[in-house]
Design a protein that fits this description.
Blueprint lengths: L3 E3 L2 E5 L4 E5 L5 H14 L7 E5 L8 H16 L4 E4 L3 H10 L1 H4 L1 E3 L2 H12 L1
Parallel strand pairs: 3-4, 4-5, 5-6
Antiparallel strand pairs: 1-2, 2-3
Helix pairs in contact: 1-2
């Protein structure tokens, strides 16, 4: 997965095994999730661990939450980790209300998320 920027979303191949994804704001966020899922599960895609940076995300819709759960399921099936970081307070409140803090792996920052994955695969 080469580095790419798509209208608000940037996917960076941090290593052969890790993709760093910066999601954009809604309404682009819904399209970002779709593009991300396709890049990880589409034809010729190589499963990778994913660090999902939410620092630009200001709100989540029910569709966004459903896409996030599809991403989580895809990562579990491929035995790859999904680590979500830099979650804004408004989005964190949604995570807490929906109980997502219990089922999603989160980190405060990108560096910690990347290190966590690298230690696990090293």
């Amino acid at each position: 997965m080469p580095s790419a920027t798509m209208a608000g979303m940037a996917i960076t191949a941090w290593s052969d095994d890790i993709a760093l994804v910066n999601l954009g704001r809604e309404p682009q966020l819904s399209e970002d999730f779709s593009t991300l899922l396709h890049s990880l599960d589409g034809p010729g895609a190589t499963p990778r661990h994913v660090v999902l940076d939410l620092h630009d995300v200001h709100m989540l819709t029910s569709s966004n939450l459903a896409a996030l759960m599809r991403l989580r399921k895809l990562q579990k099936l491929s035995k790859k980790r999904l680590v979500i970081c830099r979650i804004p307070d408004r989005v964190w409140a949604v995570f807490l209300t929906a109980g997502l803090d219990e089922i999603l792996e989160t980190c405060a920052d990108v560096g910690t998320a990347l290190a966590s994955i690298q230690i696990g695969i090293g």
